[in-house]
Amino acid sequence: MTDNRKRSWVVGITGASGSIYGVRLIQVLLSMDMDVHLVISNAGWRVLKEELGWQGTHREDLLQQHFGAYAGSYTYHAIGDIGAGIASGSYLVEGMIIMPCSMGTLSSVAHGASDNLMARAADVMLKEGRPLLLVPRETPLHAIHLENMLTLSRLGVKIIPAMPAFYFHPQTLEDLVDFLVGKVLDSVGIQHELFARWGDHDVQA
């Protein structure tokens, strides 16, 4: 039986600093004609406003402004909508990426506290054996943070901290953002050309 579904990903944006990473990830996925199921925590909305200047009272209008012009489609799910399709394992998606991921959300996922749609969707990825990738953005890290990351890593969750690289000689902030988004895409097997790789002819040691 042929699977004719368009590739769909769940993307979460939490209240950790670095919302620009999640926004860019969504834009790249949509530009590849994929479907995105988007979940943004209440704190995530605040960070979008404070870091990226997302002003306005109508969230759907803001999302359309930033994501509406791409080939793919997106569906926004409110954080409290525990009855959304992505809260069920029978709803088929490729996997889930939380970028950036706050330590609070990371802890909820590590301990199975499915008290909102973000944590529940992540729990579904774990129970169904689908890819789950978290991009934590916090420093310094204390022992509880590290223990929670270790717990998730042992369950097969990929942890990609928001750490920039400089070997490819980034010239702009956008270069650094694209590098991290590219590393995330690498980890879930999505081809891209967002940064020059080590060993490429245009990367000098």
From TrEMBL:
Any GO MF annotation of the entry = carboxy-lyase activity
EC main class here is: transferase
List where the protein spans the membrane: none
| InterPro entries linked | Flavin_trans-like, Flavoprotein, UbiX-like
Binding sites annotated in the UniProt record for dimethylallyl phosphate: Y167, K183
Query: What is an example of a Pfam family matching this protein?
Result: Flavoprotein
Coiled coil (residue ranges): none
**Does this UniProt record's set of keywords contain Lyase?**
yes
Q: Which UniProt keywords apply?
A: Flavoprotein, FMN, Lyase, Prenyltransferase, Transferase
Please list the reactions this protein catalyses.
dimethylallyl phosphate + FMNH2 = prenylated FMNH2 + phosphate
Q: Does the keyword section mention Flavoprotein?
A: yes
What residues does FMN bind to?
G15, A16, S17, S41, S102, M103, G104, T105, R137
What functional role does this protein have? Flavin prenyltransferase that catalyzes the synthesis of the prenylated FMN cofactor (prenyl-FMN) for 4-hydroxy-3-polyprenylbenzoic acid decarboxylase UbiD. The prenyltransferase is metal-independent and links a dimethylallyl moiety from dimethylallyl monophosphate (DMAP) to the flavin N5 and C6 atoms of FMN.
PANTHER family for the chain: FLAVIN PRENYLTRANSFERASE, FLAVIN PRENYLTRANSFERASE PAD1, MITOCHONDRIAL
Family designation = Belongs to the UbiX/PAD1 family.
- Output this protein's name: Flavin prenyltransferase UbiX
Organism this protein belongs to: Paenibacillus algicola
